[in-house]
Every structure is written in structure tokens, then in C-alpha cells.
């Protein structure tokens, strides 16, 4: 049996440049070794994403006219490299009447939504080329909402336009207003960024994959049905290690306003670290060979700033360089991942 290859992408705003750069390298290596022009979405069996990772997941899974991946990894990362400054552009008048985002969200979602329309058009979740899981949170019904293409194919109430999926998973509190979207049956959902509970969606991906019959879904009898951990190859990619310290004297008398920034930062990085710990424990119970099939890629930020919305030209370039430096220092591991993905096609 071949293993199910899973790609999981963290949230992190503009820091999505880092996994985008790494995946561009992986895609080129996969194409070279397989002598094909397939794209990253064609190589993996399942893709999960949160927030900026959810946007990338949508981009990788949009079909072309032949039912293959429409966009290559390089095209997906261009959204951040070329449009980041417009997406995270604060209106001067808005900044004056809304200092520190105390009154309303920091940014208008107009530029974000325009880019989604250009990228995704009228594509539906049910049309994605591979099964996926993209996270968001329903603030009205107060429950986690998972966009999954498997559910979308069999139930119209779970089927949404890709532009709405991307908008929902990236509706980061204090940065963008919540997404108010409708399914294909007309039911309304009020959703925010999935990073509030699953900034690292790898464990959510593991749980979702456990229930899928991949042999029939992918029309590949070599793939397992309802796979367990030993049947999975998981590649989980973060958006840069954030180790900004918060000192006792800064927070000992802090109120709600002063806690906003650190609590969001701590929740996101803490969740990512916890999921990594849990998956390492799961894979640690497997045979020596199978235990090596979980990879967590968490690049250092180096000179890049950790702010999710710092899309200045200088920081965007630093983020790109952080991705390139990670590739340079971890080429052997990345080439090992490439070999395993191809071996399990």
C-alpha cells in the first residue's frame, strides 16, 4: 500500500510567504524528479490549511480545464509578494478615527476579496481537485467550522464558493471583519479565522483523513481506506518561529487593551507547538521506519518581523529570504520529502 501524503499549512498572515517559497522549491524538485509539469496540488493526496495556509490550500486545489491543479506554487506566493501591501494597507483617515483598532477592524477586506475573485472566480469547494480541510470558527453558533471538499461533494449545505472559504479562514479578529457567507443552499454563516483554535491544522487533518476511503476517492487502489498514522506521510509547514518575549513588568498590570497583541500571538504559537507535540507522540508509537514520516518544518524568521500584517517591501523581502535560507540549510531533508512524496504517488 502507498501512504496518503498530507500537506498542512499554518496561519500567519503575510508570513505565508515563507511556506510559499518552500513549496515552490519542493514543486520544482518534484517536477524535475518525475519529469512532469504537475503542480503542488497534484502531488499531495490531501491539503489542510488555516488562515494564510487556507488561502494557499485553495490556490493549490483550484482545477484547470483538465481537472489538474491550475496554479503552480510560484503563482500562489505572488499574491503575497505583489499584493501584500495593498491587502494590509491602512487608510489614513481610518487610522485617525480608529487608533490601535479599538473601534473597528484594522483593515478593509476589499483588496483581499478582489484578489480572491481574481484567483478563484466562481469555483466551488466541491470542485477542488483533492480532498481538503480548511478551518474557520462560527461566532454565532460558537463552534469550529471545517470546510471539507468531501462533505461539499455530498451535501450542498457544506458547499461554498472558494472565495468565501478563503475569506472566512483569513478573517483574523481585529484585522478584518468577520466573513458573512452563504452555502449553496442559502444558509448563512458568520465566520472568523480558524487560527483562533487551530493555527496549526495538522492534527485536524489527521482526524479528517482517518475517515476517508482514498482508494475510491482518488481512483487509486494502491491508496488505503480510513488510514491510520502508519499509512500517512504528513508534511506540516509553519510560517516562522515566533519567540518574542513578554516580560512580567510589561504585563503585571495589563488590562484588556494591553493584552490584545500578546494573547493573539501566544494563542497562535502555543497551538502550533501543542499540535506538533501531539503528532510527535502519535508517530513515536509507530515502528522506526513509519515514525519518520511526520515532518514539521518551522523556519526561523531571521531578519523578518513576526507581525502578521507587516507587508512593507523590506519585510516581504526578509520573509522571502527566510524561506530561501531554510531551503539552503535543510536541503537534504527537503529532498528526502520529495523522494517520499513521489514514492507514495
From TrEMBL:
Under the heading Gene3D superfamilies, the entry gives:
Cytosolic phospholipase A2 catalytic domain
For this chain the motif GXSXG maps to: 49-53
Keywords assigned: Hydrolase, Lipid degradation, Lipid metabolism
What superkingdom heads the lineage?
Bacteria
Give start and end of each PNPLA domain: 7-206
Question: In Gene Ontology terms, what is a biological process of this protein?
Answer: lipid catabolic process
Motif GXGXXG: which ranges? 11-16
**Coiled-coil parts of chain:** none
Family annotation (SUPFAM superfamilies): FabD/lysophospholipase-like (SSF52151)
Origin organism of this chain?
Niabella soli DSM 19437
The record places the motif (DGA/G) at 193-195
Keyword Transit peptide part of the UniProt annotation: no
Of which family is this protein a member? Belongs to the patatin family.
Q: Which GO molecular function annotation, any one, does this entry have?
A: phospholipase activity
What is the name listed in the Swiss-Prot or TrEMBL entry for this protein? Patatin
For the keyword Lipid metabolism, the answer is yes
- Chain ranges passing through the membrane: none
- List the active-site residues: 51, 193
Amino acid at each position: 500500500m502507498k501512504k496518503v501524503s498530507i500537506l498542512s499549512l499554518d496561519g500567519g498572515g503575510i508570513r505565508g510567504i515563507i511556506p510559499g517559497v518552500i513549496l515552490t522549491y519542493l514543486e520544482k524538485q518534484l517536477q524535475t524528479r518525475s519529469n512532469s509539469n504537475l503542480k503542488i496540488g497534484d502531488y499531495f493526496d490531501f491539503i489542510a490549511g488555516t488562515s494564510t495556509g487556507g488561502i494557499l490550500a485553495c490556490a493549490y486545489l483550484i482545477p484547470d480545464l483538465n481537472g489538474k491543479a491550475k496554479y503552480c506554487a510560484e503563482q500562489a506566493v505572488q499574491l503575497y509578494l505583489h499584493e501584500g501591501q495593498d491587502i494590509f494597507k491602512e487608510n489614513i483617515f481610518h487610522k485617525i478615527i480608529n487608533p490601535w483598532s479599538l473601534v473597528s477592524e484594522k483593515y478593509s477586506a476589499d483588496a483581499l476579496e478582489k484578489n480572491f475573485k481574481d484567483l478563484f472566480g466562481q469555483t466551488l469547494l466541491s470542485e477542488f481537485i483533492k480532498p481538503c480541510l480548511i478551518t474557520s470558527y462560527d461566532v454565532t453558533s460558537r463552534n469550529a467550522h471545517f470546510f471539507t471538499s468531501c462533505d461539499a461533494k455530498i451535501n450542498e449545505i457544506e458547499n461554498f464558493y472558494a472565495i468565501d472559504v478563503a475569506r472566512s479562514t483569513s478573517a483574523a479578529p481585529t484585522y478584518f471583519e468577520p466573513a458573512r457567507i452563504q452555502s449553496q443552499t442559502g444558509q448563512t454563516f458568520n465566520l472568523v479565522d480558524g487560527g483562533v483554535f487551530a493555527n496549526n491544522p495538522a492534527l485536524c487533518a489527521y482526524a479528517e483523513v482517518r475517515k476517508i476511503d482514498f482508494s475510491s476517492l482518488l481512483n487509486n487502489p494502491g491508496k488505503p481506506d480510513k488510514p491510520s498514522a502508519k499509512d500517512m506521510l504528513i508534511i506540516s509547514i509553519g510560517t516562522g518561529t515566533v519567540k518574542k518575549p513578554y516580560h512580567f513588568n510589561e504585563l503585571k498590570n495589563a488590562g484588556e487593551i494591553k493584552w490584545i497583541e500578546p494573547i493573539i500571538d501566544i494563542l497562535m504559537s502555543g497551538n502550533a507547538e501543542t499540535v506538533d507535540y501531539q503528532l510527535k507522540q502519535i508517530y513515536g508509537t509507530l515502528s522506526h521506519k513509519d515514525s519518520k514520516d511526520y515532518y514539521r518544518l518551522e523556519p526561523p524568521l531571521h531578519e523578518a518581523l513576526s507581525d502578521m500584517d507587516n507587508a512593507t517591501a523590506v519585510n516581504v523581502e526578509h520573509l522571502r529570504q527566510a524561506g530561501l535560507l531554510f531551503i539552503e540549510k535543510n536541503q537534504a531533508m527537503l529532498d528526502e520529502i520529495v523522494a517520499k512524496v513521489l514514492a507514495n504517488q
